[in-house]
Amino acid sequence: MDAQTKTAVGGHGRSSSVLGASDTGASLLCVAVMGLGVSGRAAVRYLVAQGVTVSVSDARNVQQLPPADLAFLAEHGVEYECGGHTLTFLRKADKILVSPGIRQDLEILTQLRAIGIQVLGELAMAASFVHKPVVAITGTNGKTTVTALIGELLQRAGKKVFVGGNIGTSLFDYLSNPDDVDVLVLELSSFQLEAAGAFKADVAILLNVTPDHLDRHGTMAGYAAAKMKIFSGQGVKDTAIVNGDDTFCRELTAGLGGGQQLLLFGHDRDCQAQIAGDCIHLQWQGKQERYDLAGSMLATATGGLNSAAAILAVRTLGCQPEVIAQGLASFKVAAHRMALVGESAGVLYFDDSKATNTGAVLSALENFSGNVILIAGGRDKGDDYSLLRESVGRKVRCLILIGEASELIAHVLAGVTEMRKAESMEEAVMLAAAIAGAGDTVLLSPACASFDMFENYGHRGKVFAAAVQKVIEKAERVGCKSGGI
Fold this sequence. Notes:
485 residues, alpha/beta, Rossmann fold, UDP-N-acetylmuramoyl-L-alanine:D-glutamate ligase, Protein-Tyrosine Phosphatase, Chain A, 3 domains, nine-stranded mixed β-sheet, six-stranded mixed β-sheet, 21 strands, 35% helix, 21% strand, globular, disordered N terminus
């Protein structure tokens, strides 16, 4: 089948069913879903269940579609094209639902808009059907941890919570069963927000803004503008929570203009959630509350900021201090986010594979005073690696580079610290172990995407952890042979 061929599967004809007519009065006769990823599949399931005729357009060739995707399309009776997006196929739809990974400035989308076909993102299409309080979290780094933490704290408070968005569960999964939810907690990426339409958050959180996805947004201004859409539509009954330590965030939100309540978290004295060491001091309704992170997985520089943001959000929604304190103490940080994966001969090995931009690497390095052997590199996303020069110069005694961006990073960071190159993760870990001495830290914090060498950042982290385990086992064997225990 060539790249522009379409194939009809199943037997569904064109439907005149109404999606959510009782709520909006809007009729959706046919929706074309562009991109059959996680959100695309969830949208197809939901729309078909509502009686809407659905078609799918995917950029992959039919040979590249997994058998499970082909079976999914057949099961739901969906007409589809693959190998590219064509105007002939898409113009038959009444509305286009674009997956987050597809650029909004594609020529085909411009053509569709020109002929009067509405192009929507997941948030925009779902906006009219969300009638529960929404907590939305965005930022360059920390989104997943803060989203999970807020969800867990709300659940401890007895609320029924839907946790989704960019964290891996589509909003359409909520729409399939909306009555069993009290609060929605959504991690939102810049890709999702740029096509958010009329979607509004009751509590909107901006964690930080540092360079990322510039290959998609073009400039920092474009990237920041997408992030700022998290505050769109907010009014006097809503709350904006912003990182007071991030000067750029303060500048961006100085004139929000929606009349919403603005709450700050960080180290400065004007922050309602002020961080001091492992403690967070919250000024709330004329009283001061104290939350101690010592002994928890959140007792790090990054964990303090994440916790402060989460505390402000859940207090806004009525969670009580004792419940919050218990939740902070028991919270487990997800894999590949500053996870200790091994220790050998006084050397600690940390997996921070989720750090796919410079801001995340800077955040990771803040947790160490120095003596770091940093493994970085991968597929470039247009980031500005010069932002790493000062921190790498102070804290990294050797930088080991892997992947497609290794030459670029080496050029930008020339002269900052000792640098080595490795052809694989296994080689990088062995090299790091040979260099490291007692008191050193080996840190995987790549500042790049993973797709040049791995399936995703999780796969990259697993390969790193496996390589570390081999190093530890080898050291133990050598220790036994030499009389060690």
